[in-house]
Structures are given as structure tokens and as C-alpha cells.
Amino acid sequence: MDFTLTEEQREFQQLLRSFVDREIIPVAREWEQTGRYPTEIVKGMADMGLFGVTVPESYGGLDLDPVSFALVFEEISRGWMGIAGILGSHSLACRMIAMHGTEEQKQAYLPALATGERRTGIGLTEPDAGTDLQGIRTTARRDGDHYVVNGTKIWITNARYADPLPVLVKTDPQASPAHKGMSILLIDAVLPGFTVTKDIPKLGYKGTESCEILLDDVRVPADRLLGGVEGIGLKQALSALEWGRVNIAARSVGIAQRAHEEALGYARQRKAFGKHIAEFQAIQLKLATIATQVQAARLMAYWSADAVRQGRADAQTGMAKIFCSEVALEAAIDAMKIHGGYGYSTEFEVERLYRDAILMSIGEGTNDVLRTVVAKALVRGEVTV
Which residues of the chain have pLDDT under 70? Predict the structure, then answer.
């Protein structure tokens, strides 16, 4: 039983870590607090080829294995989780196009998406439909060689930069069950009627935009129907969200790792009652708990990523996302406690880690919903523990 990374993966991890230490950590707190868009960091990620992590090599991408994919999001989130969001939705959309797109769609989009020349995201969530995607209201009516799209999408990452944005729509609103009438259209943000109506103010997850989009009679060429077939859009989206749960689990590990580093570093240098607080047993217990949980979460994240490599892994990725996201929040809170009053100050990193960690239990399916996914897989015998 081998729990170690391959030599290639270790070298890749070190490359990512050096980039984060050099380009992200020194500016993250200031840029997050001022709302500055991380243009230079985005360029650096593009130069490293990270926008092509899920793009096949034949279209110019890195085509990373799932564990290496997880390393990307763990290491970047150790520096600034919001930056990982810029890559996250983009990578999932690229995978959808690579898996389900027509050859013409792959040729048209993937090479430029791999370099970062084009960016993308995923348009799934709506004001009244998040977890229940079959409840979306956005429609796409066929009109000759176009679809006419109307609806609203919310919480869309990379909304202003999406070129194209895969959008989940109902091509047959009367279909029963609803998923048989759902499709994905590749919509360019520059089309008339495509409007970013607002940026959603957030507690954390800053550095990347989260927007509401209005689609008002947007005419989309029919050849932008993902895969060229109607009625399989939900299946196409869910195939990407499996990698999305690996993404969130890995981001959570990155947050937890940084919480461990900050807590340990502070405990070693902070003095009280004439000695470093790292010598106090109460602090040692917290440090040991954080470190143990981080290591367990990391193994869970890599395990779920390897399960994806072997095939469909809804239960495994669900378990990892649940566990890792809860570890991230616990680690952030304990790190704040170790910092005492300073942990509540925006002059220290840990308060941002806390704000970012909360989202991890919500994104890519809430933890309670994923618990039902895991339970159903157990009952059906699809996974055993």
C-alpha cells in the first residue's frame, strides 16, 4: 500500500508551492482587503499552463491525472482560496467540453482555453435552483438555426471573462422527468442580451468574481449545443461536478494546511507568562489536533482523486468533500483561538482562512445533500467501507 506521490507529482507539487510562496502569499491579504483583481497571478497561472489542467494534450492542455489536479487546488488554496476559484470553474467547464463536446467544439475552444487566452466557468445555479438543478427555469427555445435563451443565473464565477460559458437550460420545459429536457449551451458573454447584472457581495471567497447573469432573448447558434444532442445536459454537468468535489476537498486541505502553518508559527513566537505559548499543554493539544486532521484530510482527498481515476466515484468524492471541508473550518477556528485576539484581526491571515473555509461545506453540493448521496451509494452496495 503506497501513500506517496510519484516523483513527477512531487516535482509538480514543489513547482506549485514555489509559485504560491513567491507570487500569492506576499500579496493575498492586501489584495483581498482592497478588492483588487489578481491580474498578475492569473497571468502567472496561465504561463504555467494551469488553465489547461483538464484539457487533453492533443488540444494543448496538461491533461492532469486527478491526484495532480487535486495538488493544484491544494497548493493554490494554501496561498489564497479565492484564486483557486478562478481555476476551478474554468477547469470543470473544460472537462465538460473535452468529454462531451463535438470535435468542432473542441477544436474551436479547447486550445485557447488551455492557454488562458480564453476563460470559462459554469452557469448552473439560479436564484431558485441550486442543489435541485432540475428546478432551473432558464429556457432555450429553438428558432431556426439558433436557440433563444431567457433566464437568470447566479453565483457565476468568471462571469465577465467567460468565452464561452456553458449554461444549463431547459430545451423542453415540459419533459418528465425534468432532466430529459435539459441541455447545455456554450454561450459567449459578448452576445446581445447577456448581461452581468451585479457582483454578489461575499463574506469570503474574494479575488474572484461571483455574479448574477441575466439572459434576455440571447440568440445562441444551434451548433453551440454541447455535444450536439438535446436532453443530456444534466448528465454532462454532473460528470464535471465529480471532479468539482475533488477540487473542493483539495481546496479545503490547502486552507487547513495554512491554518496549521499559521497556528504553529504563531505559537512558537508568541510569549505569555514568560514562555512561548507552544509550551502550554492546552495549545499543544490544539496544534496536535489540527495537524492530525490535516493529514487525514489530505489522504482522504488523494484517495477520492484516485478513485475518480479508476471510474465513477460519487460516494468517494462525496465523503472526501464532506470530511475535508469540515476539517478546514475546524482548523481555521482552532488557529484563530491559538492567535487569541489577534486571530480576529484582519492584520493576520487566520481570519481570512475562517471566512474562506465556510464556503467549502456549501460549494459543489452542500454537505448534508452529499451525505444522502453517500448513504444511497452504501445502501445500493455501490461502495463499501
Answer: 1
